[in-house]
Amino acid sequence: MSSSIKIPRGTQDLMPGQVEKWQYVENKIRDICARYNYDEIRTPLFEQVELFLRGVGETTDVVQKEIYRLETKGEEKLALRPEGTAGVVRSFIEKKLYGAANQPQKLFYIGPMYRYERPQAGRFRQFHQFGVEVIGATDPAVDAEVISLAMRIYQAFGLTGLSVEINSVGTIEDRKSHRAALLDVLNPVREELCEDCRSRIDRNPLRVLDCKNNKCQTLTKDAPSILEHLSDESKEHFSTVLSYLEGLGIPYNVNPRLVRGLDYYTRTAFEIKMAEIGAVETLCGGGRYNGLVAELGGEDSPGIGFAFGVERLLLALEKQNIEIPVATGIDCYVAIQTPDAKGQAFVLVDQLRQAGISAEMDYLDRKMKAQFKAADRLEAKFTVVIGESELANNTVVLKEMATGEQQEVPATELAGLLSSKLS
RNA sequence: GCGGUCGUGGCGAAGUGGCUAACGCAUCGGAUUGUGGCUCCGACAUUCGUGGGUUCGAUUCCCAUCGAUCGCCCCA
Questions:
Q1: What percentage of chain A reaches a pLDDT higher than 90?
Q2: How many CB atoms lie within 10 A of CB A311?
Q3: What is the pLDDT of residues A44-89, one digit of tens each?
């Protein structure tokens, strides 16, 4: 036997039993989105690499080492999408949604994303994100709506112990002034910082503040906060977002050191965390991206959004022992007593299915005993038996599995009878 | 890219440098010749991720490799 081909690393087969959970989660999310008036958008799984270089940021880890680039015959340089926002914004521009009737545009997506990383708990190479984007409004109420939507979804699943970490990373100008002040503090201690932070100083000094290394934390504990460098408008925006959140009763924690890993964020940045789901505690991340649409070649439009990992949501539910209801079992199993009855059984099963009854039969020529075991395993509510005498009389034996009661009924009346018994 | 742990039948899991590689679940057959969920009996790994080495002999020791998993980094 030759060696078999295995599933690519960091991907998973969603098997029966698991898929139903995903469907439940997706349905619930779609339902809530409808109530918030968000419409679904589906964009390609791959895009021009350039979209991600410009959209996500060339210096980010996601782009520098995690992008799956595609070999193609043509000139196009393509890549699998590592996140959803860039594609949605590209589509917004290309489909001229800035001119659409509904403004702002409120969109959501749910689907697979790809990042080349070492897999671990709650992290895969092909993973699934649900995310929303609101494009065309600067209103702080939209920031608060987006954050609350994420929270309400988690709450709808029954998750508790979540915290919203929020910050404002300001505008490009705000950051410029902050950056200068920050470098005045960082450069003198450059050599004492960890290796990662030394390279962060040049790429994005803001991220040094987010380092988990204790020594770096100590060295930077008096570093200027971005919040001190916000313009009056940015300050006003931020405080209004916070007051809206308070109005909704959503607790938050202002974390001046919170930095998002993608470059496009401006002003509001937030994360939703849950302790104890393994090493990764961030369930959701998002923020405002007022410069992104213009950066990608569109008419300047403000935007805000978030994304969360479906796998992480499932992991979080598991950690909190929240059961996902999964419907199992079929209505009727048709057991074949004699090979002569097979054709009749086959037709019967088809009739039941057409009548809206879920039905199954034996395809392995098993004995009655084994067929009843199969019916049991399928959690069949009823089992129908067709044997020689039933075949001769054009009847079937209908057995209710829970009670063990059985009766002989005309084959033509089975579907009707079962329908009424099942309703 | 770096580090820890692990890799035995469909699944879970014991085990030892050398007798037929435990056991549990599942599956199949029988006790019950047209009927399940309980019980009892029986069957089911020329083989211990893969390749190489040490050895009279390796699933057990060594090396490599692949994979899984957890963690670092980063992120959802």
A1: 61
A2: 18
A3: 999 999 999 998 887 777 877 889 998 888 778 999 999 999 999 9
Report the predicted TM-score, pTM, of the whole model to 2 decimal places.
0.90
Nearest to A394, CA basis, from A407, A406, A408: A408
Residues carrying CATH 3.30.930.10, chain A: 19-171+231-319
Give span(s): CATH 3.40.50.800, chain A: 332-417
Proportion of chain A above pLDDT 70, given as a percent: 97
Which tokens sit at A131? 């995310």
Phi-psi region of A324 (alpha: psi -120 to 50; beta: other; left: phi over 0): beta
Residue A313, class by beta-carbon neighbours within 10 Å (0-12 exposed, 13-18 middle, 19+ buried)? Answer: buried
Residue A277: the pLDDT is: 53
What fold does the segment set A19-171+231-319 form as a domain?
BirA Bifunctional Protein; domain 2 (3.30.930)
Residue A285 Cβ < 7 Å to strand B:
yes
Least confident of A120-124, A289-293, A300-304: A120-124
A106 sits in which H/E element: strand A105-114
Distance A117 CA to B49 C1' (A): 23
Residues 70-99 of A with CB under 7 A from strand B: 83
The alpha carbons of chain A give a radius of gyration, in whole angstroms, of 29
CATH 3.40.50.800 is the classification of domain A332-417: yes
Which structure tokens are listed for A390? Answer: 């039933």
